[in-house]
Amino acid sequence: MSGIKSWIKSTLSGESAGCTASSGRRDMLRSTRDYDDDDRTGPKYVDHFTLGHPSSTVKYRGARVHVYDATSEQFLLEDRRSAADVARSKHNLMDGVGDDGEGNEDAEGSGGGGGNSNSEWHQHRHTITVKRMPWASFGLRVLRLAYTLVSILLVGYFFVLCFQIILFLFLNLPVESGATSLTNERRPMMVVGIIFSIPIFLFGMASLMAIGTAFAGDAWRGGVLMKSVFGWSSILTECLYFTFYLVIPALVFAFALMIGVNNPWEICVYSWVACVVLAFCSFGLAVVWREIKTCFDLIDVYYPGGDEDTTWKRFLFKIERAIFLTQNKKYAGHEDKRFLVSGDDQPPENGYSFDPDFKPLQVKRGPYSRLTSLACCKMYDNLDPHIRLYTTDEIRDVLPFITKYNWSLEAMCCRNHNSRTIS
Question: Which residue of 59, 66, 336, 380 could cross-link 77, Cys pair, CB 3.0 to 4.6 Å?
């Protein structure tokens, strides 16, 4: 009982039970407590921010199971200690071995060097088993497939609409230039306006398709991005999906049949499209607002304002700084360097590009970058030393690993060549 009392006393005081070793070895040794909920001898699991939501820990059949949820499956990390190790830990606890002050002496003596210890320190043996468990049922897949198909139908309609607008812009060029008129009447201002409007429409179409693709993919994943953007709970998000995608169109169709209209299916489709368009517009506006707010928050971090700045003045400064940084990143010349390093090499403090010990395998400079470095281009300044540009994946610490199981010729040809990989 003395060992258990000492364990409770040391736990309440914030110390690790049984750790009577000197400070030099305290970080290397682990306690030999029983494998319960308060056991800290196992590996430490840290959730990365790229996970959709934090993991869950469950005690099941004498093991600690860490559950990581994906779209329609789970990844289970089963942390189990060996039976002999658990029995030895219980025996040490009952005998008072491994507790501070009563049944254990310093592992290396009070001076930290060499010693006569009556207790034996044991490293717990943990076996981690990784499992993949599908949890989505057939009914859930059918329901989410219905949401996804309706979302894809809406995105396809928007694609056709945008494509027709851009197509008519190109067809308007010969008309406004007078090439199709017998009188050769030309409208140069209309031609200039059409030419300058084409990039704007193309950028708008690309942005709309990107948001639409995310909207359709999020419908298949069960509204994960929708919950993250709006901050809704799972129950509220699923109820809204079910109401907008199924309940309202079904009620409209039933009401149209009851009043005896001639085209109930047409009215049902109109209501269906209106509900999905409302959900898509809300999703798109929320995503754009979240991106703008995040951009302004980053500007507040790196460019803090003074006390004399008013709200309106600070808001204009954020807009000006965001536009300036975007244009500076977009129109500045850059040089790509590729390195082949070993996993045993320690990464240099300032990066491989600025370390003379590492030589790049390949250096690329595009035509635009060569143009900006010419002496005749006075609007560009050559930076010496150069400034490293980090990609979004590098900032988010998203570095995929290439193994013999996921390597393929298609994946290598279609991958983003600006991103880094580990192989």
Answer: 66
The span from the CA of 31 to the CA of 100, in Å, is: 11
Q: Specify the 3-state DSSP secondary structure of 213.
A: helix
Phi (first) and psi of residue 344, to 5 degrees: -85, -15
* Dist. CA 13–CA 15, nearest whole Å: 6
Is the Cβ–Cβ distance between 85 and 67 less than 8 Å? no
Comparing CA positions, the residue from 348, 312, 319, 333 lying closest to residue 383 is 333
Cα separation of 290 and 391, whole Å? 20
What are the residues whose beta carbons fall under 8 Å from the beta carbon of 21, sequence distance 6 or more? 29, 106, 107, 108, 121
DSSP-derived secondary structure letter, 139: H
Q: How far apart are CA 20 and CA 309, in angstroms?
A: 56
Q: Are 321 and 305 in contact (CB under 8 A)?
A: no
Q: Give burial (CB, 10 Å; 0-12/13-18/19+) of 104.
A: buried
Task: Say which residue the tokens 């056991």 belong to.
Answer: 39
The dihedrals phi and psi of 403, each to the nearest 5 degrees, come to -120, 180
Q: Report residue 294 as tokens.
A: 């995040």
Task: Looking at 177-230, list the stretches that DSSP marks H as alpha helix, in order from N- to C-terminal side.
Answer: 188-220, 224-230
pLDDT tens, N- to C-terminus, the chain (423 residues): 444 334 333 333 333 333 333 333 333 333 334 344 455 566 778 888 778 778 888 888 878 888 888 877 888 888 887 655 555 555 555 555 444 433 344 444 434 444 444 444 445 577 888 888 888 888 888 999 999 999 999 999 999 998 998 888 888 888 887 777 766 677 888 888 888 888 899 998 999 999 999 999 888 888 888 887 888 888 898 899 999 999 999 999 999 999 888 888 999 999 999 999 999 998 988 888 888 888 888 888 888 876 666 778 888 888 888 888 888 888 887 778 877 777 777 777 777 777 777 788 778 877 777 777 777 777 777 777 777 777 777 777 777 788 888 888 887 787 776 667 777
Cα 359 to Cα 337: distance, rounded to the nearest angstrom: 9
- Exposed e or buried b per residue across 237-254, where buried means at least 16 C-beta atoms within 10 angstroms of its C-beta: beebbeebbbebbeebbe
Query: 333 in helix, strand or coil?
Result: coil
Q: How many residues are present in the chain?
A: 423
Distances (CA, A) of 326 to 74, 92, 311, 329: 39, 63, 23, 5
